[in-house]
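User: Can you help me understand a structure? I only have the sequence.
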Amino acid sequence: MPSEVFSERYELVRHIARGGMAQVYLAQDLLLVRPVAIKVLFPELSSDPAFVERFRREAQAAANLSHANIVSIYDWGQGEHTYFIVMEYIDGQTLSWRIRQGALAPTRAAAIGADVASALHFAHRRGVIHRDVKPGNVLIDHNGRVKVADFGIARAVSQAGEGLTQTGAVMGTASYFSPEQAQGQPVDARSDVYSLGVVLYEMVTGRTPFTGDSPVAIAYKHVREYPELPSSINTSVPPEFEAIVMTAMAKNPEDRYQSAAELRDDLTRFSQGRPVAALPPSMGTPATRAVAGPPAYPPGYDLAFAQQDTRLVGQTGTVYAAGAPAEPQRSKAGWWAALFVVLLGVLGAVVYFIGQNANWWGTPATIQVPYLKGDPEAQAQTILKAKGFKHVQPQDGPSGLVPHGQVIGTSPGAGSAVPPDKTIFLNVSTGAPMAAIPTGLVGKSCGTAATTLNSANFKVKNVPQNSNSIVSGLVISTQPPGGQKYQQGDTVKVICSAGQQQTTVPDLQGLSAAVAGARLQAAHLRVGNSATVASATIKAGLVAYTAPAGGSAQPWGTVVTLYISGGQETVAVPSDLVGETLQQAQKELQTSQLYNSVHYQPITNPSQDGYVISTNPKPGASVKQNSTVTLYIGEYTGPTTTTTVATTTTATTAPATTTTRATTTTARATTTTSAVTTTTAPVTTTSSPTTTTPATTTSAVAAATTTTAAATAASSPSVTPVTPVTTTTVPLPSGSAGGGGPGNSG
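Assistant: Let's start by predicting it. Here is the structure, written out as tokens:
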């Protein structure tokens, strides 16, 4: 009985299938942590050097075949009393299982056949003949990929002289034998072509071309009889596909495709809707003779007609179309001799099996107990009784590896030689023992939960899942839940928290609140409160920005606040701009997030020169932020005036004389940020008699100023001279509109 772990590396998981010389298990590669299939040779065959050599040859032959349509071989070794091969695990079904569901469409059958032919051609080029091509050795995974498996009786062509295939020691599966294989003759790549033709036949008809009561009877039909045409069983089979199948199944290897590549190419042409190389019966030339007997289907072959009119069969075994001239007759001695040999072999086999069942040859002293692990109970009992054991006693027992109802093993063990009257105890699995799943794992760390479950003989599979309430790395739940009875050895799923599910906040700028809310819900986010903000770039009523910001990663369910644009923000024009200097006003506008433009306005009040005399908009007005306020700056430009200086001289001998002096002063307008302040006051001038002030003109950029003063002299009645006094009076200019500068205080 095989160990549960082979080579301290491959741990058996469950039984998959039973083959002709080995059991197949799903196993886990503990080193590379991957699933593999492991084929374990029956213990009773492990002591047979021929079978061990054959088993080793399979591993060696397939290991050197690296192809997309061939199952890869990873390892080969020896276990406890047996040998094993480690190979690629294909998660899918066999082609035989697919055929049992119903016949395949010809196009699908052609696609599968082309893949199998591609694999066989690759093996043939490397000198390896499969010799057991059948649906059970064709695997199809869940993605539809085709893999050819089981090179168990494959052999190198260069080793044809070895005794694995000799007359009387035929290996393979009778339903898929080539005629030459059935007769124990040497085989080549064309034998695999024939077997693949049988597989193609079965795919579109749902049955093999030949059936019989025994493998010998089926093998005889492969050599001597002809199958029904596929189209007579399934009318949907097109003539082109039928021609391919019948060419591949020609009894004479010379009449078949000469390589698997030729068959593959014809199947590909059929799949693509192009003409095929194989000729339908109505288009061909006479077919050549079959191997040692009747021919392959000839041109114009009609099964019913041929059965009714045997005159169409020439003495050479060649079948002709109706009306074709017959070949000269030849001796039938060779044909009858071959037929006699086959019939003699069949008769001998029948007599042997009848004698075995009737105990004609006597009761053997001992019988070897077969390897039955993984077989259903009823099948195992049948095998033991057929071997000659008279007493079989089933007994139930739990097993973590063998499914319920299948055989765990026997006592005595497989390979033991025991008398036929000895009782064979058949240990039948009741499945793994039941145990309660540990409780209290929710909220524990996932590592702790795995350790606890392993201690209770459960396997663990961690399944990450986001959670808004359970911290990352802790157990959310188990499947099945804690406390429930479950078979030991089965896998318990531990749902581990991966933390909150993350999502990305969408960019919502420029969207309406309704659309933004829908986008947030689609992103598994919640809409929070909204607030209105000023925006110079986003139209009022649309989203200006969000918090958290768009593009940031947030957990599911995060509340997002929408900030809705109210348009540009308004501010008041500062109320104290009038009367400030330009520099002061500009600074104040900048503080209020307003721009300014400057306009100079002529004034007549020199006290307002260089000061803000008015604004537009007016002070206190509400304006949009970042808008422009016009500052009107006073620029002094007063008119030209005449100053009259009157000089009065009082003397005893002469009258007073008045002299008028005109003074013109032109002041230059200033554009600096400093205020120009002019202070004027009445001027009184005292002068000596007959002093005349000449007119003086001073030119300036902005304006001319004229000051007029009058001087009055008073004299006493005495004749004593009096010192004269001159007074100049400069009147103040009137204030201008929009005043408020310093000149308005006097």
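Now, to help you interpret it: The chain is about 25% helix and 25% strand. Residues 153-170, 282-331, 647-746 have pLDDT under 50 and may be disordered. Let me know which part you'd like to focus on.
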